[in-house]
Design a protein that fits this description.
48% helix; three-stranded antiparallel β-sheet; alpha+beta; 20% strand; globular; single chain; Alpha-Beta Plaits
Length: 69
């Protein structure tokens, strides 16, 4: 698994997960429980991970979507 993005922005993470799933890429969100334990103050960023073979495609999808917005 490779890290696609690390952020405290819950809205962006949700959007990224939806974007990736719509393209057939199944992301995994890490550190979600650690973030909740710290009171959701943002001290622990969450990591969005994808399979190694999906990394390049996922990066391209995100870059295209970011450019379009």
């Amino acid at each position: 698994m490779q890290e696609l993005e690390r952020t405290n922005n819950a809205v962006r993470l949700s959007w990224l997960e939806a974007l990736l799933r719509s393209a057939g890429i199944e992301p995994v969100l890490l550190d979600q429980h650690a973030s909740i334990i710290d009171g959701s103050i943002g001290a622990v960023p969450r990591r969005l991970m994808v399979d190694d073979e999906d990394l390049v495609r996922a990066r391209n999808l995100v870059a295209e979507a970011d450019a379009a917005s």
